[in-house]
Batch of 2 targets.
Target 1
Amino acid sequence: MHGLSQVLGFTPLVPVAAATLILLIYVLKLRDRTLYNLVLLVGSSLTAASTLVVLSETIYGGFAWYCFGGWGAPLGICYYADELSAYYAAVTSAVFTAVAVYAVWYSRHVKHTALLYVLLLLHLSGLLAVYYTVDLFNLFVSLELVGITGYSLVSFYHYRAKALVAAARYAVAGGLMTTFLLLGVLLIYTATGAVNIGVLGAKLSVAWSPPDQMGFFNKNLYADTSLVIIAIAMILWTALFISAIFPNHFWLPDAHSEAPVPVSAVLSGLTTAMGFYVLARIAYTVLAESVLAGFLSTLLPVIGFLGIVSVFYGAIMIGVEDDVKRILAYSTILNNGYILMGLSQGTALGIAASLYHILNHAVGKALAFLCIGYMVRRYRTRNIYALEGAGRAQPIVGSVLAFALLHLIGVPPTSGFFGKFYLFKAFIDADNLAYALVVIAGSVISAYGYIRVMEHTVYVSKPEIVGKEHLSIIVTITLTTLSTVILLLGIANQWVIDYLTYTASTLVLDSTVYIERIYGLCQSLLSTISYP
Amino acid sequence: MNTLIALNIIAVSMIVNIAIAVYGIVKKPSMVKKIISLGILSDTVCLLAVYMGFTATSPHPPLYASGYGAGRGVDPVVQAFVLTAIVIALAFTVFLATITLRMYEVANSTDLHELLKLEIASEEIEQLEE
C-alpha cells in the first residue's frame, strides 16, 4: 500500500531497545563504560538514520504511515509522518546524536552512567512518538514518557537539594498539566467520539466531507462545540506549558540549570520545541478550516501576545542573571517567544520561519550549553565573574562559545541571522509592524546579555588561570561538527526556507490533505479485513 | 429517576474534587500534600472517564453476547483509557515519592517554600559541589 513504512514504526522503538540493552548490561554486572558508550552511540545514530529515512520518504509531498497490528482509526494507533512530523523528528534525533557524543565525555565524571543514558534514550523515544502519532490518547502517553524521564533527568544529581527542588517543582506542575491534557482528550472523545486527530479534524471540518458516510468520519457531534473548545484549550495550555511560554515559564530556569549539561542541551533545544508541534497540529490541522475557526482567530493574537511577553521577559532576565547556565535557560524562554510569535501569524512564511528558528535554536543552544558545560566542569563554578578568562585559557571552547552566542544574537554569517530575518520578513509581509519591531527590540536587549557572557568568559584575559587546554577529542569533534552545521545552514538558508515554506503552505495550512490521507488509510485498511 | 439523581451527585462531587485537588497542588507547600492532591486529581479524571462512558439507558457491562447489538452496554473504550492512565499515575506517584524521600534525606524537610528559602543561603556551598 502507498506510503507504508516499516522504518517509521520502528523508529521510536530503536532508543527503547538501546535503553533496554544498557539496563541489561547494568543488571548483568558487565558494568563497562565502553559498552554503555557503544550502545548509546549506536542507538542514537540508528535513530537519527531512520528519522532521516522517514524524512526522505516524506520530502516534497510524500507521506509515511505505520498502523500497529493493522488497526486503523478510530481506535487503532497509527504512526503517520508528513513533512512537518518528519522535520521535527529529524531535527530532534540529529541534535540528540551530537549531544550523545558529548555525553560520552561528560559521563566520565558521573557515577551512574548507565542510568543517565537510559533516561536520555527513553526521553528521545517519547519525543519521537509524540511527533509521529495520530492518536490523541497515544500522544498523552508519549507525553508522560517525555515528562517522567525529563523530571528524573533534572533530579539526576540527587544529592543536591537544589536539583531535587527544581525537579519537584517541574514534576508537580507537569503532572497537573498532563492530567489536564488527559481531561481534554477525554472531553474531546465524549463530545465528538474521536481520539484520532484526522477523525477529529474530519468531524469539525467545513472544508472536507467524506465521499461516503463511512461510520466514524461522519459529522455527528454528541455535545455542544463549546465543550470541544474547552477541551482544546486544555490541550493547547499544556502545549504552552511544555514550551515554557510566559505564564508557565516558572519551572524552566531552575530545571534547566540544575540538570546535567547534556540534559540541559536536550531539554532546552528539543523538548520545549515539542509543545510547538502539538500547538501547530491542533491549531492548523484541527481548528483552522473547521467550525471552530472563529475560536482560532481570537486565540492566535492572544498566543502571539504571550510570545511577545516571553521575548521581553527572557531578554531582560538574560542581562540580569549571573549564573551562566541560568542565562542560557532564560535564553530558551526568549527564543520560544520568537517561535510562538511566528507560529501565531497563520501565514506560510511565518510558520516556515518559526520552524527554521526551532532548528537554529536547537543547534545553537546545544552548542552554547556544551561549551559552558566544559567550562563549568573545569572551573567548578557557574558564576559569570568566577569564569573570567576561562575562554582565553581554552581557545577552542572559548571561540566556539563566542560563535554560538553570535548565532543566538543573530549576527549575519551565522544561520541565526537568517532565522530572525525571515521572521522579520514574515511579520512585515503580514502587515504586523509591531511584531517586527519586537523581534528587533528583543534582539537588541538580549544582545546585551549575550555579549556580557562573551565579555566575561572570552574577552577578559586573566593571566593567573591561563593553562594548557586539555580538550578531549570527543568534545572537539562535537563542537566543530555543530559549528559547521550552523555555517552550512547559513549558506543553505534559501533552500531551507523554501522547503519549510512548501511544508507550511501545503500541509500546515491545508488541513484537508491530512484528513484525506487518514481517511484513505482507514479505507484501505478496512478493505483488507475479511469478516468471518 | 434514582439513577439520574445519583449521576448528578457524582458529577457535582467530581467538580468539587478537581477544585480541591488543584488548590492542594498550587497552594500547599508540603510535597506530601502535593502528592496526595495529584492522586485525587488523577483519580477524579479517571472516574470522570468512566462516568462519560456510562449510558443510563442500558447500563450493562460491555460484553457482547450473540443477539446483543452495538450500543448496548457501557462504552469500553474509556475503560481502556482509564487502565492506561492509572498505570501512568502510579509511575508518576512513585517518582514523586522517591524525590520527596531524597529531599527529606538531603535537606531534612519536604516543605518546598522552606527549601527555596534555605537555598539562597547555601548557594555558594552548592556551587562548589558540582
Target 2
Amino acid sequence: MKRTDLKGTLTLVLHALKVEWPRYAIWFFGMFALMVIATYANGQFSGEEMRELVILSVGEPGMRMLVSPIRPEGIEDISRFVFFRFSFVISILVAIMSVQIVNRLTRLEEDTKRAEMVATSGAGRYAQLFSALIVGVLVNLAIAFALTLGLVVNGVEVSGSIVAGLSYGALGIVFAGVAALTAQLSGNASASSGLSAIVFLAVFVVNALSNVTGNVHEDALGFESSFLAWFSPMGWVQEVYPFDDRNLWIFFLFAGLFVLLSFIAFFLVDKRDVGRGILPDKRGRGRAPGWMKKPLGLAYRLHRGAFFGWLVPIAFVGAAFGAATGDLGETFEDHEFFGEAFTEAAREMPFILIAVATMMVAFYARLALLRMRKEETDGPLDNVLSTPLSRTKWMASHVLLAVLGSFTLVMTMAFFQGLVVAETSSDLGEQLLGGVIQYGALFMLAGLVVMLFGLIPKQASAVSLAVLLYAILAGSFFGPILDLPEFMKNLSPYTHAKFLPENASALRVLTMYGLGIALGAVGFIAFRKRNMVF
Amino acid sequence: MNAIEIRNLTKYYGEFQALKGIDLDIKQGEVLGLIGPNGAGKTTTVRILLGLLKKSGGSVKVFGKDAWEDSVEIHERLAYVPDDVRLWPKLTGGEVIDFLASLRGGINEEKRAYYIERFEFDPNKQCRSYSKGNRQKLGLIAAFAADTDLIVFDEPTGGLDPLMSKVFQECVAELKEEGKTILMSSHILADVEKLCDRVAIISHGEIVETGTLDAMRHMKRNLITVRTKKPLSDLSDVEGVHNVEENGEALSFQADNEKIDDIIRHLSAHGIQSLEIAPPTLEDLFMRHYEEGYHKSEAVRDEKN
C-alpha cells in the first residue's frame, strides 16, 4: 500500500456527510424515537404483566426467534425487558441502515460513474471505500448515542445504557463491513444490497436457531441462547448482557470481524476494475431467446435475479420457523398449567410468523416495483416506449411480475413452514390460507407503491420506504409491542390482516385486495398522463 | 405530405420555459438537421415528438397523428436513437437488438446481420461492458434494422470515432436513397452539413432559422483575424466584411465566403503581418442571430401571418 492510496479520504467523508446528512438525521431521530417510545410504553407494564409476557414468549420456541435472552432476576426491570422484546427490531434496522449507507457511498457511486470522476480527480485508490467505512462507523456511533439517550431519558442506568447502545452500534459497524465486501463482489448496487440482505438473513436465522435451541429457565422465566449464538453477530449482541454481566470483551469480536471484512474488501479493490465486480462479465448469447422478446419476458429476465435470490432463503426461513414451532405439541404438555390462553397463543404462532415473513417480503415487493423507476432513470425506458409498446402494457408486465413474485415468496414461506408444522398440528391448507390473508396487506402496499410511481416518481423511492416502515412498525406484530394508539395501528394494512384464518373476515380480506387494485389503478392512469423524468 | 408538423410548440419545466413556440415541418423523405447549442431545446423537442414528454401548448403531429395521444400507432413507423444509449447492463447487445426489434413487430434478419457487420459490433457482450461508442452503435443498429419510415437521432455521432461516424453517414445516405424520413439533432455543424437536405437552427427554445444550407450560405462566414503594417481604417466599407472588432493591434471580422478573394486582396494591399482564418462556430451563428437575424426572422414571421 502506498501513502497516496488514502489521499482525499477526509474530503470524501465531509462530502458524504454534506450530501447524505438528511438520511443520517432521519435514522438518528428515528432510532431515538423508537427507543424512547419502546422504553416508555413497555415501562407502563407492571412487574406481573412483564412476567406473563416473558412466559408467553419464552414458552414457545417459535416466539423465541423474535425475542432476546433474558434472565429470571431481570424480568421485572424495564432496561432488560425492553431489549428482550426489541433487540430483534433494532438489530434489523441498524443492519439495513449500515448496508444502505455503505452501498450508497461505494457501489452506487460507481454505477453512476461519479466514482471515476472522484478517482481521476486525485483521490487515492482506497479513498472511496475507506471514506464510506468511516462514515458507516461514525453514523453507527451516533445511533449508539441515540439509543443510549432514548434509554437514559426514561431513567435507565447510564453506564448500562451506553454499553447497550454501543452493542447495536457495533452490530451496525459489522454490517458496514459486510456491505463493503459485497460491494466488491457484485456488479452493481442492487446486486450488492441483495447479497447483503442474504448475509443478513443467514445471520438472523442462525441467531434465531440459537434462541430456539437455547436453555429455557424454570417456568419459562427467561432463557439463554445455545452455543450457536457465537456464530452470529446478532447473537453476540445478545451475549453482551449490558445490564448484567456486561461482557465488554465481546466488542473485540465485533471489531475483529469488522477489520477482517474491511481488509478483504480492500484486498479485492486491487483485484477488480472500477465499475465492475470481482465476478467476471460473462460472454453471453448473441441472440435473444423467444420468451425474452416479449415485454413480460424481458420483465421476467430483469426480476428473476432478485426473485431467486429471495426464494431460497425465504423457503429456508419457512422451514426454520416451522421446525421451531413444530415442537408445539410438546410445549403444550410441558406447560399445561398455563391453560387455554396459552394453547390459543401457541396455535397462533405459525400464523404470526407468516405475518412477519410477509413484512420482510414487502421490501422485495417495493424494490421489484421500483424497478420501473430504475428503468426510467437509467435510460432504457425511453428506448422501450419509443416502440409501439403502450405505457400501460409495459407497466403491467412489471407490476404483474412484482406481485406474482412477492406472492410466490409469501406462499413459499407458508408452504415450507406448513410442511414441517402440518404433521404435528396445523393443516397445510390453513397455513396457505394464512399466507393469502397476510398477502392482502402487502398487496395493498404494493398498490400504493404503484400509485406513488405514477403520481410522484421522483419521491416514490423515499416515500414508499417511509410508508413501508410505518406499515410494519404500526402493524399487527410490532404495533401492539410498541403500544401505539389505535388510530396509528389502524393506518397500517397489516393491522387488518388477522393472524388466524378463523378470525379473518372474507369481506375484510377482499377489501384489502380491492383497495390494492384501486390504488394501483390510480398509478396506471397517472403514469399514462405524465412526463418521463430522470 | 409532411411527416412531422410542429406548430407553436411550448414546454415549461416549472417556471422555466424550455420551448417558446417552435414551428417546424419535415416533409416525407426529407433529412432534416436540428442544430443548436447544449440546452437549446433539441432533446426536449425530440422527446415531445416521441410522446415521452407532454407539451405545454401548441400541436405536434407525426404522420398526421397526435404525438401524445396516438404515440403507439406513430411508433410503429418510427425508430429512435437517444443521445446516450443506456440499456440493461446484464443483457447482451444481441438480446437488446432482438427485444427492441420484436417490440417493433419483428426482426429483419438480413438487415440485422448487415448492420452488425457494418458497425463491426460484437453482440455477445453484456451491455455494461460496452463503451459509450459501442452503446451508440447498439442503438443505431437497433434503429436501422427496424426498417421504419421515420428515424429520429439525438446527437447520433457523440461517441463514435471518425471511422464509425463515416459508416454512420453512409448508412444514413442509403436510407435517404430508400426514401426514409430522418430527423437528426446535433450541435456539430459538420455532422448535418453532409447529410441534411434542410437545417433548422434552434436557440433558447426558438427556431431562429430554417432552410437549405445553400440558402444559409450567408451564415457560412469565416472569422478572420489579421494584423497589417498599414492601418485598415476603411475595412468596414469592403463588401462581404461584417462585424469588425479591434483586438489590440489586430482586427477581427467575419467574411462572406464568396467575397473572400476580394477581401484578402484588400488585406494584402495593406501588408499582412499575420493572418488567421477560422470556420464559423455555432456560437458565431447564434451571436449573429441576436445581433441582426433576430429581427429579420420576426419580420418573416409577420409576413407569414
